[in-house]
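Hi team,

As requested, here is the filled-out complex form for the zinc ion run. I kept the field names the same as last time so the parser does not choke. Let me know if anything looks off before we queue the next batch.

— J.
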Amino acid sequence: MTLSIIQGGLAGAQDAPRTIRSKTPLTTPSRKATEFSPSRLLWARDHSMMTRSELAHAANVSVSALAGYEQGRTVPAPATQERLAEALGIQTHFFSLEELDEICPEAVSFRKASKTSKKHQRAARGDARMAVEIFHLLEKHFKLPSPQVPSLSGFTPTDAAELVREEWHLGDRPITDMMSLLESKGIRILSLDHRYTDVDAFCFTQDTTPYIFVSTAKSGERQRFDLAHELGHLVLHSDDDESTGSKEREKEAQDFASAFLMPASRIYTQNMRNAHIQRIIEAKAYWRVSAMAMAYRLHDLGLLGDWQYRTTAVELTKRGYRTGEPDGIIPERSQLLHKVFHALDKHLTIRDTANALGIQRDILRVYLRDLTIGII
Ligand SMILES: [Zn+2]
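And here is what came back:
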């Protein structure tokens, strides 16, 4: 899958999908010492997962003074800004950059919202805002693929999965590289912070551009399934009227992922009825899905009976397929980010990008973690 990523020529590019907001050059971020953005202070505190009193202590300010800065009632002196920045692990000029885009809180939903701590939810929503910032910056230097994700709310997950395959001309063969496919369709993908042990992945749409955060702490097979699951949300729930409950939406996204990665029409030609365990393991390698997902799909299509599905699941668990993926695939990488940060002659450096965003390189590296190799 080739990505239509074109070096340079952004500012006026006719089909640049969105307005370019910041005029900050990449290497020389604007510094207006008189300006201070309370929303950026809040972002940084959410990201650090510190309480107000923890930050006040770390930056040697009073809790009430900090509340005043956060609520925009007072502006901290430059020396205080330095201490806040140091405590928060960001660069001081971060506070004086343009306001971060607002993201509708409902736009970011979590698979197990009830089990996701508020602290993690706030930090993850902050990551969503930073993702928009990161890709706005990249779009100043590269022409990234325009979004081409169909909106199919109201369709069944299976029909929607078939329609997306049709629209993207995928036939009914296995998808070689889910991540590159989604990137080529304009979905921006970043790595989910491994601190959020209670979040698997999440997606949102901002200004018509879809974004996915995916956990790279899992097997390659599960990462592909998570990407397909989030694609399901983007396709089925982008105009969500909230009439479907969150449990139902999760089931729909799971069913979409299953049908999208393993189309029924081809599986029916593969002689999978009452498939033996070894046959399931071969098939899961062919479809590049987990053995558990393969067995589930066969059961769902009526090719494995209830009893057989249960004994298969028990056997797969014994062989280590519930907690991992023995002899699994190499996890997919981001071709888009690789090109942006490595491959092209005038690639971006992590240092310059982090400076332009006002964050430390380590924070940026977390967003790119495992998606590109050997980030410098
Ligand atoms: Zn979900």
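Two things worth flagging: The chain has a mean pLDDT of 87. The pocket of zinc ion is lined by residues 111, 229, 233, 250, 253 (CB under 6 Å).

Thanks,
J.
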